[in-house]
Every structure is written in C-alpha cells, then in structure tokens.
C-alpha cells in the first residue's frame, strides 16, 4: 500500500484529494498538510512513497518552487498538482518531479497518474497542449501523425522516464541514433526541450497513464497494418 502526503493548496482541496486517494485500493494518505508544515514533515522521517504537491504553494522566488520539488524528491516520488503553464514542465521535471498534473484532471486520471508514478513512470497531463511561446502555432494532437513509428516508440520510452542510453540499449540502437531521433522530433513539433516533448506525448493522447510500453507498440503496429 503506497503512502501519500498531500501538501499545500486550500484545505477543502486537500480534503477532496484525500478522499479520492483513500478510495483507491493501492494508496492511502499518510498526511494532508499545509505547505508551511511540509518541510517539518519531510525532515521528521515520515514514511511516504509519494508527495502530491499543490502548485499554489507560495514561494518568495520563482526558483523556490523547483527547489522545494528537489527537496521532496529526496524523500519520495513527487507529483505536482495544479500546474497551469506548459513552460514550467521542463524545470519541474529537471527538479525531479515524475508527475505534473493540471487541476482539472478527473479522479480516475489522478489515481492512474499516481499509480504510474509509484511504479517508476513519468506522467505529464496539462489542460492545454504545450507551446514554446505564443508566437508559435499551437501544438495539436494531429501532429503525432508527423512522427514515424520509431520516433513514437522512442517518445513513449522517453515519457516513461528512460534516458537515451537505456532507450538505445533496449532498441539495439546507438545512443547517437536515439539523440538524432529526439532532435528530429523537436524540430517536427516546433519544441525546444525534452520536457516539452514529454508534455506533448501525454497531452496528444500518445501516452495514456497505466498503458504499458508493450501495449503501446502492439497497438501502433496493429494500427499501421
């Protein structure tokens, strides 16, 4: 049974999140605390597998929130709840977050995301598709058709938390070939960072929390036949 800390956000939101999580068969809320109490709880040796961290946590500087993510990641896998800007995804992933969710995810999506993260996966589910800046065309799910099957396969593995070296090993490719595929995907989609690629994968529906890599490849091959 995975133990979850729900941190930050209005007390009513924490109560609702607690009820949703406790209704699952695989997770229980160990504590639901105000953001001011989070650090004391983390350093007090609490036994937790996941931290659901509300994005509304107030910090003095913009970088303080990513620093808090890094701090919580040292204790447990961390999921950011209430993310609203795709531009934040890269920094939060680099800080160690393995889940980034918009505030409007459904209860079933929340549970599926937490279960995926608890198994070592990475989930990004935002309310809008990621874009590098407002001057660029909006990224839409239809753009997945511009990706080759190999590129979609690599993007799936990347979104599950694998790095270039492990992807290359699993696909029997050179690391340089994998990096080249990633560069091509960034160019095709008009993105600049891997974090944006991961956000795109979830927002486009290419990746669905709880669907395994093997199932994805089987579905893609069936669709291509």
Describe this structure in words.
The protein has a six-stranded parallel β-sheet with strand order 2-1-3-4-5-6, sandwiched between helices. The model is unreliable at 128-141 and 209-225 (pLDDT under 50). Helix content is 48%, strand content 13%. The protein has helices spanning 11-22, 35-43, 62-73, 89-95, 107-118, 149-159, 164-171, 175-189, 194-203, 213-224, and strands spanning 2-7, 27-33, 50-54, 77-81, 99-101, 123-125. It is α/β, with parallel strands linked by helices.
Q: Strand-residue fraction?
A: 5-15%
Number of helices: 10
User: Any idea what the radius of gyration is?
Assistant: 18 Å
Strands side by side in the biggest sheet: 2-1-3-4-5-6
Number of strands: 6
N/C terminus separation: 41 Å
Structural class: alpha/beta
Q: Which outline best applies? A: elongated
Mind summarizing the main beta sheet? 6 strands, parallel
Give me the secondary-structure topology:
Elements: E1 2-7, H1 11-22, E2 27-33, H2 35-43, E3 50-54, H3 62-73, E4 77-81, H4 89-95, E5 99-101, H5 107-118, E6 123-125, H6 149-159, H7 164-171, H8 175-189, H9 194-203, H10 213-224
Helix pairs in contact: 4-9, 6-8, 6-9, 6-10, 7-8
Please give a handful of descriptors for the protein shown.
single chain, 225 residues, alpha/beta, six-stranded parallel β-sheet, 48% helix, elongated, disordered C terminus
